[in-house]
Amino acid sequence: MTRPSNSGRRPAVRRRNPDAPHRVLLRGGLVLAIAGLLAWIALSAYNGVPGRSYTTIYVSAPQIGNLLPHDAVRIGGVRVGQVQRRETAPDGGARLELQLEDGIQLPADTRVRIRANGLLGARYVQLLPGRSDRMLRADATIRGGDDTITYGVPEALDTFDRETRGALGVTVRELGKGLAGRGRDVNRMLPAFGDAQPGFQQLVRTALARPGAVSRLLPSLDRLMTPLDESRDDVVALLRPTGDALMPLVDRRDALQRTLDQAPATLTAATHGLQRGTRLLSAARRLTVAAHGTLPDAPRGLRATTALLRESPRPLRKASILLDAAKPAVPAAIDVTTALNPLLPRLDGALGDALPMVRRIGRYGCDIINLGTVFRSMTGYGGMGQGPAGPPMAFRLQAIISPGTESIGVSDPTGFLIKDGYPKPCKYLGGTYPAISVHGLLRRKAR
């Protein structure tokens, strides 16, 4: 067997690089340098684009959770930067260095929150700008409080360490033992729990509204439960007789329920009774106070009353005779007063209208007496002087008009015009008329 001939095959030709070795090395070094530069840019870009300016601010907070470098910084849900570095502050809290985009301006009252970025523990920093006109300068520090971090599922799971899980298991098992055979009672409890839920929520809101109340409550509960845990055997021994004592109430729960249904009305009646009893006691107290002031004078009053009763029969008999005599006149008096009753308002009005006139006329009493005396002298009656006609008659006629300047605008040179319509009392005469005086009349009548 003959082998095929290779006479038709072309011979292999070796390629040769026309470039010199140093040029090849130079190109290789240049490629490596470019690749290294690109790698450096890629690694540096994670901390910020090289050559681009950023603004740095700091955040101080008691806790930051699982926040890591390069986690996002957001304002209103928009990413504006990243966490550059995290470290421990001198006060034991956490200090964050935030890298913000250039041009971000934050008011001086900006607040900070560390929010959960999912259920697996990732977080981000949220900045809440305030309304201050003053802006934060670069490298400023924003300080957060105890409410800076919002707890999520990882923090809740971190609380369930080995010891806590063991205690929780004991609690669940003991709770199962306590609820064993109590299904009907639990079913009745659930609707009641639903009705009590608004009150429980109000209690929780009230506790949360007070700063630090919940943080003080939990240690207080721990201090409360520690002695109870140490004394649980004694507590169980105490509860057993208590359960035996309460068992009749359980057996008679229907009667107890009826009693409780009647309890509100009974308590209401008892409350009213106590209020009335309080008023009675107050009245009794006032009575005793009054009696305390009266009893010292009681013997003297009783003696006076005894003397009065001894002397009263004769006046009472006379009063009885008087009342018997006055009895027939009572209907007539009632008729008279009934008839006068419609007239009394009018009579009261007339007397009220006449009262000012009587008051004014009363002030002119001496003038009225003088008028009567003069009139009597003028007519010649009751003369007391010599002659048949009595004293000489004389009188003066005067016109009583308004002042001259008010009537015709001229003065009165004669003196006949009186310038005041109401002269002062007893101004006309200085005394009574000399011919007749009241004392003279009285002496004459006495003769």
Please tell me about this protein's structure.
The protein starts with 20 loop residues before the first helix and ends with a helix. It is an alpha/beta fold and 447 residues long. Helix content is 55%, strand content 10%. The protein has a 7-stranded mixed β-sheet, with no helix packed on it. The chain has helices at 21-45, 153-158, 162-179, 183-209, 213-230, 232-251, 253-294, 298-311, 313-326, 329-340, 343-363, 365-379, 404-407, 438-446; strands spanning 54-61, 72-75, 78-88, 94-101, 111-116, 123-128, 141-143. β3 (78-88) and β4 (94-101) form a beta hairpin. Among the domains are: 53-156, no CATH class; 364-384 and 396-446, no CATH class.
Provide key terms for this protein:
single chain; 447 residues; alpha/beta; seven-stranded mixed beta sheet; 14 helices; 7 strands; 55% helix; elongated
Question: Nutshell version of this structure?
Answer:
The chain has 447 residues and is of the alpha/beta class. Helix content is 55%, strand content 10%.
Give the arrangement of secondary structure elements.
Blueprint: H1 21-45, E1 54-61, E2 72-75, E3 78-88, E4 94-101, E5 111-116, E6 123-128, E7 141-143, H2 153-158, H3 162-179, H4 183-209, H5 213-230, H6 232-251, H7 253-294, H8 298-311, H9 313-326, H10 329-340, H11 343-363, H12 365-379, H13 404-407, H14 438-446
Parallel strand pairs: 1-7, 2-6
Antiparallel strand pairs: 1-4, 2-3, 3-4, 5-6
